[in-house]
């Protein structure tokens, strides 16, 4: 139960945070909007309580929603990295090159947007629960199927289906974890949730060492094992209801004299008509953020091994240290975004990341692990702001669709980043190894490429909107009120629902 003092903290925080909003519902001309881009960056310095006390604001129900979302997102990442961690073994199994196997990774990135659209719309219409269950059930079947693949075509088919399922999860877990989250705790919960991706990678690394090539089945046990935890995650989700935010929205839809599906269709039309430019902006934002993330990470192990001569163990250790920095940064910057604002926090992370690029890519000793830690602290720090920033920007009727589609389209656009860097790297050759293996100056390419991405991101975020502290409740959604028309008084519907719930509880 939340104490009276904690409720006051939450309310005061929200009241002071509202000054950072761009008054999106108020008519504003283009010139006026652009003239406020710098002034709206000024933080209100809304100082929340310490992170431990903030997390204490979450009720038991909030924690359960967060836990199931975090579990789903973490294992989603685990299943994604099973291929990248077994490329050599898969290539030998299917008599293909490593490049052929990486098409399985590219294919996942290409079709994730399909899953985001399908399951995003399903989650916005039918609720968060059952699309989440279906997606995780697909993970079980697909990971098992991948472990039994006998041909390369079967492998690609499984990875394509996995990509659709993976794409359908992100928007759902963000809405599940954050829709009902106390306002003052949104930032830190957002940061922790996003770092489930890094946690999934670290778990995949550990279990790959334990399961791959340790039995007569080679790489297959890793995929078989990957199919098991989603069963538990499904069981966990089945014990939980829908979020209160979604249930209230569904009550308003059902109160309309028109058919529920007809009401939802009008919601979609209004959302696209009124917010299409915002949806485009979200895709552009996520494309840049994913470019900078992939730009600093994808060829980093290759740079350490090929350019600087790191051993396999040194590469692993340095990469793990960098990922730990990323985890710490995501949580910290998510929390800081509740102090500085979403846009200001993002821009700070971009500028500091740019300052750290030189030591990150040009230090050739093991000391580069320190640069890796802090570089990824701010690179992933930016990603820690993403879930709550997208949630607050998204139209209420298209919340999971908007978040998931923007994130996955951004991933699709940035999927060529490693290819771009590898191609550019060939223009900066180094002395080959004694064995005659070609070497390239990947550090220079990573530095230049990421610097360009960071500059793009500064400009995009600078001109973009922010709705920190915005209400996610249906009674504050103008699109919904317009969709149901004058025959439904939203406040009355919700008040009646509360009264009925009170009677039933007695």
Automatic annotation (TrEMBL):
One Gene Ontology molecular-function label: secondary active monocarboxylate transmembrane transporter activity
Main localization category: membrane
InterPro entries, alphabetized: MFS_dom (IPR020846), MFS_sugar_transport-like (IPR005828), MFS_trans_sf (IPR036259)
Name the record gives this protein: MFS transporter, SHS family, lactate transporter
Domain of life, per lineage: Eukaryota
Residue ranges of every copy of the Major facilitator superfamily (MFS) profile domain listed in the record: 65-468
Keywords, ordered alphabetically: Membrane, Transmembrane, Transmembrane helix
Gene Ontology BP terms: plasma membrane lactate transport
Organism: Cladophialophora yegresii CBS 114405
Annotated CDD domains: MFS_SV2_like
GO CC terms in record: plasma membrane
Transmembrane domains' residue ranges: 63-81, 101-123, 130-148, 154-175, 187-210, 222-240, 276-295, 315-337, 344-363, 442-463
PROSITE patterns: MFS (PS50850)
Mode of membrane association: Multi-pass membrane protein
Intracellular or extracellular location(s): Membrane
């Amino acid at each position: 139960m939340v104490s009276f003092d904690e409720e006051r903290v939450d309310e005061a925080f929200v009241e002071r945070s509202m000054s950072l909003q761009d008054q999106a519902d108020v008519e504003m001309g283009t010139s006026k909007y652009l003239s406020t881009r710098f002034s709206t960056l000024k933080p209100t310095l809304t100082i929340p309580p310490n992170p431990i006390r903030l997390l204490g604001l979450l009720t038991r129900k909030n924690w359960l929603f967060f836990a199931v979302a975090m579990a789903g997102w973490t294992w989603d990442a685990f299943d994604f990295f099973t291929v990248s961690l077994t490329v050599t073994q898969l290539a030998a199994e299917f008599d293909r090159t490593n490049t052929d196997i990486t098409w399985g990774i590219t294919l996942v990135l290409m079709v994730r947007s399909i899953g985001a659209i399908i399951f995003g719309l399903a989650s916005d219409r039918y609720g968060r629960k059952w699309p989440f269950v279906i997606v995780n059930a697909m993970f079980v079947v697909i990971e098992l199927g991948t472990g039994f693949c006998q041909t390369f075509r079967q492998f690609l088919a499984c990875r394509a289906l996995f990509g659709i399922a993976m794409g359908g999860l992100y928007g759902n877990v963000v809405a599940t974890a954050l829709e009902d989250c106390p306002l003052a705790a949104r930032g830190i919960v957002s940061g922790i949730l996003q770092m489930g991706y890094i946690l999934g990678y670290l778990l995949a690394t550990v279990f790959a060492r334990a399961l791959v090539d340790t039995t007569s089945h080679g790489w297959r046990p890793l995929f078989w094992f990957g199919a098991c935890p989603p069963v538990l995650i499904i069981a966990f989700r089945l014990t939980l209801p829908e979020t209160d935010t979604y249930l209230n929205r569904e009550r308003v839809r059902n109160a309309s004299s028109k058919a529920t599906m007809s009401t939802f269709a009008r919601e979609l039309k209004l959302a696209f008509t009124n917010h299409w430019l915002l949806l485009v902006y979200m895709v552009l934002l996520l494309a840049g953020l994913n470019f900078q993330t992939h730009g600093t990470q994808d060829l980093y192990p290759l740079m350490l091994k090929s350019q600087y001569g790191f051993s396999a163990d040194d590469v692993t250790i340095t990469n793990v240290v960098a990922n730990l920095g990323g985890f710490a940064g995501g949580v910290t910057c998510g929390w800081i975004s509740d102090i500085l604002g979403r846009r200001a926090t993002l821009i700070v992370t971009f500028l500091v990341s740019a300052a750290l690029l030189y030591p990150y890519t040009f230090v050739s000793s093991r000391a580069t692990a320190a640069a890796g830690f802090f570089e990824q602290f701010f690179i992933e720090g930016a990603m820690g702001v993403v879930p709550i920033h997208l949630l607050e920007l998204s139209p209420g009727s298209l919340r999971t669709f908007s978040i998931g589609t923007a994130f996955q389209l951004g991933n699709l656009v940035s999927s060529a980043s490693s290819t771009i860097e590898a191609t550019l790297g060939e223009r900066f050759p180094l002395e080959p190894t004694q064995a005659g293996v070609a070497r390239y100056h990947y550090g220079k390419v990573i530095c230049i490429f990421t610097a360009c991405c960071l500059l793009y991101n500064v400009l995009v975020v600078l001109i973009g909107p922010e709705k920190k502290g915005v209400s996610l409740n249906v009674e504050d959604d103008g699109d919904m009120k317009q969709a149901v028309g004058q025959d439904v008084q939203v406040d009355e519907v919700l008040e009646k629902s509360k009264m009925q719930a009170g009677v039933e509880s007695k």
